[in-house]
Amino acid sequence: MKKFVAMILALVMALSLVACGGSGKVKMRFVTGGSTGTYYAFGGVIAQHATQNADGIEVKALEGNGSQGNIESLQQNKAELAFCQSDVMAYAYDGTRLFADAGKVDNFSTVASLYKEQVQLVTCDPNIKSVADLKGKTVSLGAAGSGVYFNAIDVLGAYGLTESDIKPTYQSFGDTANDIKDGKIDAGFVVAGAPTTAIVDLATTKDMYLINIDEEHIDNLVKSSPYYSKSVIPAGTYKGQAEDVNTVAVGAVILARNDVSADAIYALTADIFNNYPDLGESHGKYKELSLEEGASVTSVPYHPGAAKYFAEKGFNVPALAE
Description:
The protein is of the alpha/beta class. It has 11 helices and 10 strands. Helices cover about 35% and strands about 20% of the residues. The two termini are about 40 Å apart.
């Protein structure tokens, strides 16, 4: 009987080690973005630092397929962590837009918002001074069905325009910038943290302009869609940009599957926010982090581990019930 009990205990211990990756640590796969993008580079730095310094966790950064694909990776148990735009995570959680056909996805919660990704409306035509001036123009709305596409539709709608009021094209950031440079299209939407490589490259070869969104329309967008926030792209961000540009932004958010332990997510959150002031040289995006931004999400509840961390820092965030 004693031998049987000992065998059972040994089996339980072995299974426990497997669940923790055989190292006593909770292993977490972190889907980020394409290999040339900010999500991938910054996610890799976050994963490496947490693995080397945080207690009890091992994080492996993986190339992702964009915000929608990353949500699907969480849903399909192909990852425990994911980068995502705040608007796309809201679409998934509510079962709208990109997720209208697939339905609501709610097996994830928020870890933290890290930085803002601005809606940048770019043109080389000095006669386009407002979103309203896009009527009848050829405009890139981002890849078909992408998060950028819906951001563009929202901004157009705020000015009383629809897709049928313009001549739309559906292109990547690089193709958008190239076609603006070549005069094939009049303007294009890019949603990414500024400065964005594709726009930087455009500004070095052509006189480039970012279109300002006025305060009234920003207020209406933020009121109707709480995943937007007001953002300012400071003068000098791009070559030839003489003035600040007002726009809206979505957050770059880390999500976690709900079934990841609270201790593991607490350790990850603490590693990011306890250390970011000293890590600016590791990756420039660390300089944009703040506790206020981290705790700013309202559209999707926080993971209990993240909520515990932010509560200790004086921020009471909406939390998923344990």
